[in-house]
Every structure is written in C-alpha cells, then in structure tokens.
Amino acid sequence: MDVVTGPASGTVLDGRYRLGAMIARGGMSTVYRGLDTRLDRPVAVKVMSPQYVADPTFLSRFEREARLAASLGHPGVVAMYDQGQDGDLVFLVMELVDGGTLRDLIRERGPLPVPVVLAVLDPLLDALAAAHAAGLVHRDVKPENVLISARGSVKIADFGLVRAVGSQTVATGDVILGTVAYLSPEQVATGVSDARTDVYAAGIVAFEMLTGRPPFEGDNPMSVAYQHVHSDVPAPSTRVDDVPAQLDELIVAATARNPDDRPRDASAFLAELRDVRTALHLPIVPVPIPVRPRPSPTPPVPVPIDHPAGQTGTRMLPADAASTAYTADTAKTAEGAATTPPTRVQKRPPPVARTRTAAARRRRRWLIALLVVLLLGLISAAGGWWLGGRWAATPAAAGLTQSQAEAAVREAGLVPRVTTGHSDTVPDGVVIGTDPDSGVEQLRGSEVSVLVSAGRPRVPDIKAGTDTATATAALTAADLTVVTGTGQEFDDAVPVGAVLRTDPVGGTELSVDAPVTLILSAGPRPIVVPQVVGQSQADATKSLTDAGFTIGTVTKTFDARVEPGRVLRTDPTVGSTAARGSAVALTVADSITVPDVRGRSTKDAIAAMRDAGFSVTVGDPAFDAGVDAGDILRSDPGPGTRVDRTGASVFLVPSNAVTVPDLTDQKVKDAERTLADLGLKIDVTSFFGGDNGTVWNQSPAAGGRVRPGDTVSVYVLR
C-alpha cells in the first residue's frame, strides 16, 4: 500500500500549466485538470510518481515515448501536447477528455449489447491501427485506458507510458509489469510484445464488454497470468446468450494463445470486425456516455491505495472520491471502537385492572422480573459480542502442520484457505506463515491464507518439444528462475525454438529462485545443397530429394545461353547449408527456338511459327533468284535463335521472284499475254519481218527467275 499525494492544486508547472482538481490517480502517476495559461486552454496534466524521477534511463525513454505518442495525431488517441520536468516533478500535458472510461460504462451497465460493443471496439482498433502503422505498441490496453468523452467519442490513453516505465520497473518473481487481466501469454512468458499483443488485449476488452467480466480471474495476479499462458480464452457465448457466432469466432481468434493465430495487427482485426458488422447487418449506434459523480468542493487528501501486482495504469477518480476514501479508511476505527449499544425504547405496559387478585399481580411481577433478567442477559451478551466478539486475532500458525493450522484458524472463528509455496528452510507440509500475519485482528468469518511449505523446489519434468512459454510458466510456478540457453543444439525431432532439455534435469532439488537453463532446439542439423546447376529439372529434383531436401517453388526465366529446362540457380545456393527437409527453390531456363521455314510457302511458314509459340508478322516481299515467289526468303530472328517465351514474335520476308515461262513455239501475241499475266514485259526481235510470228528463242531462258516488271526478250521467225 502506498499513499498518493502529488503537488497541491494551484501549483504552476514550467511557468505555464496551472493544476486544478485531481481527476485520476494510480501507482505510477496522478492526473489533474489543468489550464495552459499561455493558450488559455483546458488540459489534463499527468504528474509521474517520485520514484521514477531519479532514474535517468526512465527520463530518457519517457521523453522519447512522449514524442512518439505525440506524432500519432489520430483522433482516437488522447493528444499529447507537451512534456517536461519542473524540479522533481516530471509531467505530461495532454488533451482533456470530459466524460468517463469504458471501465465506468461496464461497471454501470454490465454486459453491453453487441452493437454497443462494436461501437466502442471500432474506434479503439482504428486508433491502435494508426499506432501499429507508425511502429508503436500500446502494451496496456484495458478498459481504464479507453476514455469515452461527453460527446460519445472513444479515445485510447497512456500510449507508450508502460514502455517508459519498463525501463525502471523490471518483472521479476511474482511481479508482472502491466495489468494482469489483459496480459498476453507472450508478455507473461517472455516479456516480448508486438502489435499482436495489443490485438490480444483488445480481444479481452471485447470479451469483458460482452460478458461483463474478464475471461480469467483468480486469487492473485500469478494465478491469472498462469491461466493466460495455459488456458484458451473461452468464447463469449459460453458466458452470455445472444452473441453472434461470427463475433464469437473473431474474439476467440483475437485472443489465441499463439500470436501467429491472431490477426497480424489492429488493422487486420478492424477489417474482420467490419466484415462481421456487415454480415450481421448490425446498426451503427452511439456509444453510451458513462455517468460520472458530480464534482465535490472537498479538496483532495492523501488516500492509501492498494495496487495489484504490477498494475501501473491510472484509474479515473470521481471528484468526491477523496472524501469517500477517507471515510472508508476511518470506518474500521469507528466500527472497532468501544461503543454502547443503542438504548431500546419500550412502551409502558397498559394499567393493570383493579379487579385482578393479589396472587395474579404477584405472578405477573415475577414474570416481569424474569423477563427483565433474561433481557439484561441478552443485552450483556450482545454488548460483549459487539465490543470484542466480532473480532478475532489470526492465530500463530508458523511451524504447525497443515491440519493443525487449519484447526487453529477455525477455532479462532476464521476461515482457512490453504496455499502452497516452496521454502529452503521450512520442511514439506509445515506452515510457513499466514496472511494476515499472526495477531492481526479481523472480523470473525474472514478468510486467512495459510501458506504451507512444499519443501525445496524440484525442477519440473519438461518434455522435449515443449514451447518456451509453457516451460517458463512451469519453472516459474516451481519458484525457480528461468534462464534461456545461448548455445545451439540440433535435433531432427524437436522443432526450432522448442525446449530440448533443462539444465539441471527434471527432478533435481534446488534452492528457491535457483536458475534453471532452458536448452532450446536449433532444429535439424543442416545439410549441404548439392550441385544441380546445369542439370535438367527432373535430374535436379532427384538429386535434391536424395540429399534430404524438398522442392520449393520452381521459377522459369529466359536465358538465351542455356538450353530450356536446365537449372540456372537454386535458393539456398549450391554449396550452402540448410535444414534437412527444408525446401530448395529452383530457377529453370525457359525459351523457345525459332524454327527454319525458309523456302516454305508463306501459309505453311505462318502455321509453323504459331505452333512454336510465336506471333507472326509478314513483311514486304524481297527478290532472291534462288527462291520462288511466295515462299519464305528469311525470318527475323533467324532460325535456331532462342527467344523469351513471353511476347515472342517473328518477322517473315517472302520472295517475289517470278519464274520465266517457256514461250517457244508461242505466237507473239500469246507470249505477250503470258508474260503480262506474270507481271513481266516483252521485247520482240523479229527476223524476216512480221509482228505475230512464232517465238523460237527467249532470254532469260524458261525456268529462270526475274524481278516483277522485268523484260523477257523473245526472238520471232515469220
């Protein structure tokens, strides 16, 4: 128990921020309503508790985290205006949010309707998504840190503060940093947190909104933390009715013990939440505003506050809570004081009838006397019980056996509750002590925790393959200190990161808090990737599988230098090492070869090219005396060239050579028509005169090839 005091109302920090009434307090800080005198703006001023101010590491991280939080600039995050130090007071200046907290709303209304739950969760996740996108993790999402303004807007507070405090407060023994009801399994087991940690806490908050209670409760923080590590969060529908199945499944996924099974961050959680709202056709409703107590003129006074183990958050304080808490604190003194029972007022009996006999009157007087004696006895007994019998002192139980201690506690009028713990000095089965301590008085019927020794702790038998979170929880429950081994040990059966064994081995008796090293598996011993570059894909696959690998993705890529289907490279590379059974990716050469279509008809050439995977373009014909007209003269790319299959195309050039016909023995007119049909001209040389004689010779000779439009000379006899 500590006493929160803080600076007085009216104090001016940094010559600018005037403090007003206290509006919230916690083990880490006190929050005041304030005024920025420079801008005449109402603000909230969070003043850190003195124990953090002396730590330079805390101050450095505090400043850095404040700047990071200020950089968010999201409407769903309480705005950070300023941070500073005035003497021994370290403070934050933030947006003043008039209203209440989600904790107030749940306390007032209990389980909330599904549309209201979504109305709160949507802006909460939207704010966390902005933080996750900026690389920030809240680490302490809980109803106390979700503010609801007087206009019904939802804002998340205390961003980055838990991380700053983490530099000064270390989680050791049974002290866990953060609010244990919302801690993720990985925070409990290893202290590691990322965006999925906030997803888990938001899922727990959603569960509590739907059911009115968190999923895990216990007698102490460690028992709750143990449940987070070892138990799955139940579906909300197991606690209350009318929770839609889609929302049930989403909350279960968000609170999965394995972080990999949760939405990857708040953005992914929000997207799934909105899909659920759309699928269920849920209306968008306003967020109810919590009813806060009316302000009281009573000035704040120091109030003793009990903080659960590691709970560092700030809780909202009603304006009249100071006087309320003061009254509650003094109640026991007033209740336990020696007081006189209130005087019972009795009615005067009616007058006795004069007609009664003297004997009857005497009998009546004896009866009255007897009643008076009995009444006085009852009053005396009640007064004795009131003055002393209501309270009982906790008996001295240390050194007794469990049964003896339980009997002693019951005999004192109290109720024993047995817990066990390890001890280096107290034998197994013997009581270490009680809570409250012996001699402490409390009301009869109250519970007394009797701590029974389990003797010196023994290393639990942790099987190979156990995950580190489970192993850590088992060792912590055995009152031993967990140390993670730094050496690598390969094992074909135990996956990477799982526990291979403990040092000392299970069953070894140790002292309380003695270190136990977890030796973790590095997975199967790595093997060398064989040389498969240049092999066909089939041969490479056989070589790799024979070596103990599996085949991963096969990527085909163009390489004009390598025959198609041959391996170009591997990942991991040839000669490197990788775990047995791991996948090796292959990159295989891929290309198509231009077929030789020279001398083939244009139609046949086009068909052949398309069958080979090319798109075809036919260009203007060109002359070549060696190729008939219409047959392919050449291609571009040329025959045998390897080209990329993607977008492969070829350009074909046909021949336009004309084969000269045999004109001998034709009349000149017929020969002229024959040549004209082929696009050729005629030159007639006539011997002995005459224009339509018979052709007896020609040049070029029949079968020769000429260009279109060329002239063929004929020699004519009459």
TrEMBL record:
Q: What is the lineage of its organism?
A: Bacteria, Bacillati, Actinomycetota, Actinomycetes, Nakamurellales
EC number(s) on file: 2.7.11.1
Where does the record place the Protein kinase domain? 17-284
Q: Catalysed reaction per UniProt?
A: L-seryl-[protein] + ATP = O-phospho-L-seryl-[protein] + ADP + H(+); L-threonyl-[protein] + ATP = O-phospho-L-threonyl-[protein] + ADP + H(+)
Residues annotated as domain PASTA: 388-454, 456-522, 523-590, 653-718
What's the protein here called?
non-specific serine/threonine protein kinase
Residues of the region (Disordered) are 332-357
A GO molecular-function descriptor: protein serine/threonine kinase activity
Q: Entry's InterPro entries?
A: Kinase-like_dom_sf, PASTA_dom, Prot_kinase_dom, Ser/Thr_kinase_AS
* Xref: Pfam families: PASTA (PF03793), Pkinase (PF00069)
Q: Where are the transmembrane segments?
A: 366-387
